[in-house]
Amino acid sequence: MVVEDDPALQKQMRWAFDDYETVLASDRESAITQLRRHEPPVVTMDLGLPPDPDGVSEGFALLQEMLSLAPDTKVIVLTGQHDRENAVRAVGLGAYDFFAKPFEPELLTLTIDRAFRLYDLQRENTRLKAASGAALEGVLTRDAGMLKVCRTVEKVASAHNVTVALLGESGTGKEVLARGLHTLSSRAKERFVAINCAAIPDTLLEAELFGYEKGAFTGAVKQTPGKIETADKGTLFLDEIGDLPMPLQAKLLRFLQERVIERIGGRSEIPVDVRVVCATHQNLKRLIETGAFREDLYYRLAEIVIDIPPLRDRPGDASLLAHAFVQRFASENGRGTMRLSDDAVSAIEAHRWPGNVRELENCVKRAVIMAEDNRVTAEDLGLAAPDEALEMLNLRQVREAAERAAVANVLSRVNGNIARAAEVLGVSRPTLYDLMNRFGIKKEA
Ligand SMILES: Nc1ncnc2c1ncn2[C@@H]1O[C@H](COP(=O)(O)OP(=O)(O)OP(=O)(O)O)[C@@H](O)[C@H]1O
């Protein structure tokens, strides 16, 4: 798409880019309409657009609107000569590149070619990721919320000193994500050391975390480094951090501030370089209110907070995971190929899974052993088969329901304005009328 308000220049650009299919727009409104309708991979845009052709306010407003509607679009901003400031600002906002006017068409074409290539590669990458089902090593999901969590983990991984708090119900995959984070980080070659603060008695936890010198207490027969020290250069995963007793909270806070530890009974300070990832199913904010968790420690631990959705809020994931677990346990148990019956899949999708992925994993493990033949039924899983027939869920029906909801929603938001609704939905007015007819939606309703 070429966004340019000067008709002569518009024509010249269309001619210069005749290798591409080009759509034109001359102001913000028409550009957004075209963006919605054609989803152009690459956009060139002038910053000076009416009603502010000599300023940049309209151009920047359009740039931001386009990138929030279609973040993958590669936008090349055309600026005035020597207008470095606006060029840098545009790239800072997410523009792909900038070019000073007047431009040489051959040079701009090279940049456009590159933008197309990048767009295609990113598309392919997204497609491959979706196809393999592996959003992050060890993490299976197709749910948008969970995929977003994975993207956040990927981003945070490269900031190798930032502490991360993973919050979510039991069994949602906090440890899997912590391991994924470690594997993607520059610390991947070093150790990933996990410790469950709830599983170790308070009296032993300090020794476990900080280590001890020989003779520090009865039974301390030899010098022993703690988990923090063992994780040096790597990642320390503190699971169930909400269960850390108060005195140890103070000690952990001191470590996070100073980055040195002292073993129990030791005299020297040992510097340790670790990234700390912690997790809990508890509500830390509430623990802080009741005085059970230190607020200052929370802010040290939770530089980045990642909320993990429970399995019941990830539509489709339960059956995706169940199919994968069936394959894994069938081959581990030497049962060849096994599959889930239709009623089993329906029952899995209908169940609420209070214990999340762990509960599902255990349920499938047991069912694979219990199954009479190579089919795992709802009964093997110990779940009631819901009445809902599988045929109810065909794609056409789902698509139609989604289309109907979108049309109705947009129409009510634009107060029945057909032209505006068609624009937002990226369809022509006749198409919108067809859709309304088909779904029996009235303009006024
Ligand atoms: N998205 C996923 N894909 C594949 N396996 C998963 C996924 N999420 C969790 N699992 C598996 O489910 C089990 C529980 O996951 P994990 O131990 O990471 O949960 P958790 O949130 O740390 O649980 P807890 O709070 O009880 O410690 C593990 O066996 C893990 O391998």
Descriptive account of the structure:
One of its GO terms (molecular function) is sequence-specific DNA binding. Keywords: ATP-binding, DNA-binding, Nucleotide-binding, Phosphoprotein, Transcription, Transcription regulation. It comes from Nitrogeniibacter mangrovi. With 445 residues, the protein is an alpha/beta fold. It has four domains: 2-127, 3-Layer(aba) Sandwich (Rossmann fold); 142-309, 3-Layer(aba) Sandwich (Rossmann fold), CATH 3.40.50.300; 312-391, Helicase, Ruva Protein, domain 3; 394-439, Arc Repressor Mutant, subunit A (Orthogonal Bundle). The protein contains 19 helices and 18 strands. The chain has helices at 7-16, 28-38, 57-69, 84-93, 105-132, 144-158, 174-184, 202-210, 227-230, 246-258, 284-289, 295-301, 317-332, 342-350, 356-370, 378-381, 395-413, 418-425, 429-439; strands spanning 2-3, 24-25, 42-46, 74-79, 97-100, 134-136, 139-140, 164-167, 192-196, 211-212, 224-225, 235-239, 260-261, 270-271, 275-280, 304-307, 339-340, 375-376. The strands form six sheets. Strands 2-1-3-4-5 form a five-stranded parallel sheet, sandwiched between helices. Helix 10 (246-258) packs across helix 12 (295-301) and helix 17 packs across helix 19. It binds adenosine-5'-triphosphate (ATP). Adenosine-5'-triphosphate binds at residues 139-141, 168, 170-176, 239, 279, 281, 321, 357-358, 361.
